[in-house]
Amino acid sequence: MIKEIQLRVNLIEERQENNLLYKASKQLGIDKNKISAVKVLRKSIDARKKDIIFNYKVAVYINEEVPEKPDYIFEYQDVSNAKEIHIIGFGPAGMYAALRCIELGYKPIVLERGKNVQDRRRDLKAINQDQIVNEDSNYCFGEGGAGTYSDGKLYTRSLKRGDVRRIFENLVFQGATSQILVDAHPHIGTNKLPKIIQNIRETILKFGGEIHFETKVIDFVVNNNKLQAIQLQNGKEMTVNAVILATGHSARDIYELLHKKDIALKAKSFAMGVRVEHPQEIIDQIQYHCSGKRDELLPAAAYSLVHQVNNRGVYSFCMCPGGFIVPAATANGEVVVNGMSPSRRNNKFANSGIVVELDIDKDFKKYEKFGALKGLEFQKDLEKIAFFAGGRTQTAPAQRLVDFVDGKLSPELNDTSYQPGLNSAPLHSLLPKIIGSRLRKGFVAFGQKMHGYYTNEANIVGVESRTSSPVNIPRKENLEHIEIKGLFPCGEGGGYAGGIVSAAMDGERCAEAAILNL
Fold first, then answer.
1. Is the dihedral of CA 279, 282, 284, 287 positive or negative?
2. Residue range 110-153, pLDDT digits in tens
3. How many helices (H) and strands (E) would you count in the chain?
4. What span, in angstroms and rounded, lies between the C-alpha atoms of 283 and 290?
């Protein structure tokens, strides 16, 4: 017999060996010797009150062994000579599209503009230390996409778009810790992801797929509204059966190419703002109601905040406890910041994007001439402002939090995790009013919700501009582009995902759709 129950465990009990076995035995009213195993299905922390509780959902096996097999078995077959599906981009959407093609007996040919995970490291070092941006190999472009070196958070709300468990099980199959199957907010970590992504690459190659790095698509050959071929920067042309376009939300050249060719695009609402960075100890003390350091059993505290200002949401985005702020520009002449955390989340800073909802129909009147690219052009302009305010390098403009709200230039800034460095700048006047004024009110409200959050011990760093795509590549119910047969817009770049897991799910769906439409 198997019974699923909920258990609540306090900090003292969490330290005790076999605590779940004893609590399950007591709750079910049975002898502990009759329990074969207690399998944790889900674990979360309730820190709303001073007495912190670990919430467990467990399966109690009573006189029954725990099955050793996972919920999903991934059986790949040799597709060396199978029909081809071309995939542009090798982030989560592209990777999972390729894996799904192999499962279904089709050969994925992946074209990735950037480098493999090992070679990307040199270009990331160049951004951080030399402040030089390689426009095809950076924190956004390259094997694994933006998530590889910017955190690897796996939390998603996209539960209706696919099987989340299947995505997680596949990550475990490729080498991720099984803990991601349990944690309420699973996270792999920037230091662990590259090896998992390398394993995915090796799986694809082992079973006959192809992956071409440093291979940039520069044009599409379309005849009678059917995608016939793709042209590469190296001069080659590839005939295609179907193309899954999984280039991510920062591949601006793809949007511009489609726009130039009059292939249907739509401007899309998105969000922009700044990154705020506190000492992690401040966030721990607020969230765990403690003074000094947090209990060793507790992870670095996170937070989630939202407040309505003038009918727009101001909210935290991609919160990184024990993490780093990183330079996420994809071209020289712009400054973009993002956040990441290593698997142990043991850095002394906590950072989060704090962004403002922007309405594509109301907020971009001056950019109407750009049509479907109006949000993209607005995004570009803000990143250029940040570049000049930072000092025309990857140094980022920054201000202390209370100074920003009070409209005062900060005479000095706090220490930071951002390696290229910070430059004191009047972000309160540099940010457009639709963003800056809402942020100022939002920060005050957040300080009321989290006492101690609103402090000059925190820096705000600009700009957090790549939260999601400002462009949507429209598709039909069968996931094919509304005009171009054989083209399947996918993942974050198409406007159909908002993170690693939702992008991976969309990649699988697009692979299935492309195969079905051959």
1. negative
2. 999 999 999 999 999 999 999 999 999 999 999 999 878 766 67
3. 14, 22
4. 10
